[in-house]
Specification:
The protein is rod-shaped, with a radius of gyration of 36 Å. The N and C termini lie far apart (81 Å). With 458 residues, the chain is mainly α. The chain folds into three domains: 115 residues, no CATH class; 175 residues, no CATH class; 113 residues. The strands form three sheets. It has a three-stranded antiparallel β-sheet with strand order 2-6-7, covered by helices on one side. The chain is built from 18 helices and seven strands.
């Protein structure tokens, strides 16, 4: 009887141990399952939380430039992420929330590669406008609208120089400039160098094809379409939105914090390019080279080649000056001239002060004494072209060539400058691209474990 009782007691003990073990195993399995569920939920919700942060993009930046970016810093975004964690997970499945870490470094919008990617993506968000390649708006003459988009106040104090009263605005040609050192110091392009090369521009202009930029590499085409869709030039605007500078394309080309200076630099570069092209044409035109040599031999037989060189250079420069004026009056100028498209005459050069300043006393005396003979020679040469040019490149097409000839980084940084300047001018005085981001990296800490993730606009 005792043996039976002993066996029954042993069985009960083993059963108790088995039940306890099973209960422990079930508890462990439940805890493991719960933890797996928690971590799975964190992974899933982490993506939702990061998307919530990305959804807080700046609406003005999107509306004006098609760019998605959100404002913030590591600490600000960390607090937002922890708020989402608390709301979604607090008190659920015994979750211990242990905070989060956020890193925005590398996603700043003042990084060239990030901005380029955002520009490319903006073409998708604005597909209709890009596909249509809408016609730009012709600006009124400056005297009719001296301060395009003028509104009360400005972040630079540069609308009207304090030293000028309202009756002397024409002293600044009606253009704006930036004088605030903080604004200048925070521009994305503050440390970039110009790198413009006229020979690069010559090569680009000769290749032509500025109607839709389809011949350009993808990244470069995206930049030029973005430029056309969102930035204005001296002659045309992309829309009716107010902008701080009138000459935005010119700013990209020249990079000076002054409308006046940028236009002057563009004019000078256009003159240099046109002067070189015109001089090359003159030497290729046998009729004009023979004419200049004939006149040079009358003026100074002993130094005719040198005088001819002066005549050719001055003639090319006069034509270049006329070309630049035509471009700024919204006319077209061929890259390579022909007899039909050449406008200026040699007789105008012979009457110029520029020529008299380059001739010695004996040559000047000969020029004055032989005017009838010189007039007969130039008269026999016949007239020049009609000047009615329907083909050729426009001002903005020449300016596109100038912009394309810049170093890639300089070009992008200056486009970024314009975006930052206009966002300051239109909406936020303290707007800086360095404080806006296109993505984030994060770590979520729960129950002693870390879940890492990364998210960005795409």
């Amino acid at each position: 009887m005792n043996k039976i009782r002993e066996r029954a007691g042993s069985a009960a003990l083993f059963m108790a141990i088995g039940i306890t073990g099973f209960a422990v195993a079930m508890a462990v399995a439940t805890a493991v399952a719960r933890e797996m569920t928690v971590q799975s939920s964190v992974r899933t919700l982490g993506s939702v939380w990061s998307k919530s942060i990305l959804s807080e993009y700046d609406v003005h930046l999107l509306d004006d430039y098609g760019i998605l970016a959100f404002y913030g810093n590591d600490e600000m975004v960390r607090k937002k992420l922890e708020t989402y964690m608390e709301y979604s997970m607090s008190g659920k499945m015994r979750t211990r929330l242990q905070g989060a870490e956020v890193e925005l470094g590398g996603f700043e919008m003042d990084i060239v590669q990030n901005f380029r990617r955002s520009m490319k993506e903006s073409l998708i968000t604005e597909a209709g406008k890009t596909m249509a390649f809408e016609k730009r708006i012709k600006r009124p003459p400056l005297e009719q609208d001296p301060f395009p988009g003028l509104s009360g106040g400005t972040f630079t104090g540069g609308d009207i120089p304090e030293k000028l009263d309202s009756g002397r605005l024409e002293d600044r040609d009606g253009y704006r400039y930036i004088s605030n050192p903080v604004v200048l110091r925070t521009l994305p392009s503050r440390e970039s160098k110009d790198g413009f090369k006229s020979n690069s521009m010559d090569r680009i202009l000769k290749n032509g094809g500025f109607e839709n930029y389809s011949h350009l590499p993808e990244n470069l085409a995206c930049e030029m379409i973005f430029l056309r869709n969102h930035l204005g030039s001296h002659l045309y605007a992309p829309d009716n939105k107010k902008s701080y500078f009138r000459n935005e394309w010119e700013y990209v080309a020249a990079g000076k914090p002054s409308d006046t200076e940028n236009l002057k630099i563009v004019r000078r570069r256009l003159f240099i390019v046109r002067n070189g092209a015109n001089l090359a044409y003159l030497w290729s035109d046998s009729e004009k080279t023979q004419l200049t040599m004939a006149v040079a031999e009358i003026i100074s037989p002993a130094a005719a080649p040198a005088v001819q060189l002066v005549l050719m250079e001055l003639w090319a420069a006069a034509e270049a000056s006329s070309d630049v004026d035509d471009l700024l009056n919204d006319k077209r100028v061929p890259v390579i001239k022909t007899k039909e498209t050449w406008k200026t005459s040699l007789s105008g050069i012979l009457e110029s002060r520029a020529l008299r300043g380059k001739l010695d006393e004996e040559a000047l005396k000969s020029l004055d004494e032989h005017r009838p003979e010189i007039g007969e020679v130039t008269g026999k040469a016949g007239g020049n072209g009609s000047g009615n040019i329907s083909e050729g490149l426009s001002y903005e097409e020449y300016l596109s060539g100038m912009i394309l000839s810049l170093s890639p980084e300089t070009r992008t940084l200056r486009i970024m400058d314009i975006v930052q300047i206009n966002m300051k001018y239109r909406y936020y005085k303290d707007f800086n691209l360095s404080e806006y981001h296109r993505g984030l990296r994060f770590t979520i800490k729960t129950n002693g474990l870390d879940q890492t993730g990364e998210d960005q606009y795409s």
